[in-house]
Amino acid sequence: MAYFEHEGCSLHYEEYGQGEPLVLLHGLGSSCLDWEMQVPTLAHHYRVILMDFRGHGRSDKPRERYSIASFSADLLALLEQLQTGPVHLVGLSMGGMIGFQFAVDHPEWLRSLCIVNSAPEVKRRSRSDWIWWAKRWALARVLSLETIGKGLAERLFPKPQQADLRRKMAERWAKNDKRAYLASFDAIVGWGVAERLGQIRCPTLVISADQDYTPVQLKERYVALIPQARLAVIEDSRHATPLDQPHVFNQTLLQFLAASTTSQGSLSPC
């Protein structure tokens, strides 16, 4: 296990393999373990870097307001610490939001960008949006993490043969720090960089599960705003695609990374 300090916070990270740097960003309430089914395959081809964002996993959980911008700043600090130069960046769910933020703020640090089951904003624009988020906000505060984790696990992995994944997800979720989880949840609501998507110039892949929380049509709309982006839909998958369809996900990502490397030649910064 390795750690680095940024703004008084000790942050956990891991490295595997050699080659071009490939950074994997986890989702809300999760950790580096989001990528347990990717690391062995990807590390054969790339220098794989993972980190636990503040409030998550083995990283510190400071008593402060969190923001997507502060998570992005933690990522930049890690890349500077490791002297990686431009990286391939993959983000799942909240990690995808951080990826979007990082892409518009620090384009010179990206070789390519892959967004998985995520969105470039979480805005409450209609009455139904406000009601939906109000319910989620209230439930997140009233329910125990054990209850939330069990409910999420059943929704993400409903098949009989996914019993081990359900159990694993529920156990991991129960280990979250409730205050840090709520602070991270609050960081998402109201955030957005959708108006800046045209600034993303590096090769971009958006991966969507066919049964994700948000419809494929939403991804189609924002993919059209990114100059070098394309969409890949993975069937028979829900929000945790890297875990419920690891083989298809790994092959989709590797093909994209290989094509990005070929198209950019020497891979100068985007």
From TrEMBL:
<dbReference type="InterPro" id="IPR000073">
    <property type="entry name" value="AB_hydrolase_1"/>
</dbReference>
<dbReference type="InterPro" id="IPR029058">
    <property type="entry name" value="AB_hydrolase_fold"/>
</dbReference>
<keyword id="KW-0378">Hydrolase</keyword>
<dbReference type="GO" id="GO:0047570">
    <property type="term" value="F:3-oxoadipate enol-lactonase activity"/>
</dbReference>
<dbReference type="GO" id="GO:0016020">
    <property type="term" value="C:membrane"/>
</dbReference>
<dbReference type="Pfam" id="PF00561">
    <property type="entry name" value="Abhydrolase_1"/>
</dbReference>
<feature type="domain" description="AB hydrolase-1">
    <location>
        <begin position="21"/>
        <end position="244"/>
    </location>
</feature>
<dbReference type="InterPro" id="IPR050266">
    <property type="entry name" value="AB_hydrolase_sf"/>
</dbReference>
<protein>
    <submittedName>
        <fullName>3-oxoadipate enol-lactonase 2</fullName>
        <ecNumber>3.1.1.24</ecNumber>
    </submittedName>
</protein>
